[in-house]
Amino acid sequence: MGRHDGLSVNPPTGPSPIPDTLTGLPRPPRAPREWRGHTPTPHGRGPKNPPPGPPGLRPALEWNQMSKSDTWKAIGALLLVLVAFLVLKRGLDWLGYWWVWVVFAATVLWGLWTFRHGDWLAAGSTWVQQNKNWVNTYELTQIRFTVSGLNRALILTDSSGQNIHGLVIRSVQSNQPMWDLVYNGILHSVASGNCDISDKARAVLKVPADLGKPQIENRPGQ
User: Fold this and answer.
1) Which secondary-structure segment (H or E) carries 196?
2) I need a surface site. Which of 68, 107, 108, 202 has the fewest CB within 10 A?
3) Are strands 151-158 and 163-168 parallel, antiparallel or unpaired?
4) What was the pLDDT predicted at 81?
5) CA 181 to CA 25: how far, in whole Å?
6) What architecture does CATH give domain 121-205?
7) Which secondary-structure segment (H or E) carries 77?
8) Per-domain boundaries in the chain
9) Percent of the chain predicted with pLDDT > 70
């Protein structure tokens, strides 16, 4: 769990060395984030039916995926909210409504489908993936900020045309080591001068204001 409460560390002034694609070393310094969540890469179990990773790139160093217990907890919470609402509105009469049981079944099926096919987030040394979509974080050409429902998110596009339309900031920042890898790639892309980052995205990510911008020389008499 986490909350939106401002940055946890001071933002770096520029990118750090690119980590080794196999070991992830040296790890980038801690990146600033606005969510103090703690959803580390699971240890002791592997991912369940993850989508194929980026072709030609090294395996994931960090990943998150909803576990089966998390799935059932989420399903149970949704059903409890629905039952509470129906009891308040209809008492126990809702037990005889056929459409209620259809909604219950659909909720369970949705949760099981999500566990099997969705909610996948992973990062390697030079890439990040959300479900089936991925980008090379060191070759980003465009970064935009957006809002998707209740989620603050990023729209990322790289030089090969790969894109993630709605990388949920809360999700990726909740895994600090994963966010460190992603953020260092973002800094490298911006520093290259070939990445079009919006002012809003720059502000939200706390990317240094002058990073990637042409330096203006001070000439005598000017």
Assistant:
1) strand 196-197
2) 68
3) antiparallel
4) 81
5) 10
6) Beta Barrel (2.40)
7) helix 68-90
8) 68-116, 121-205
9) 82
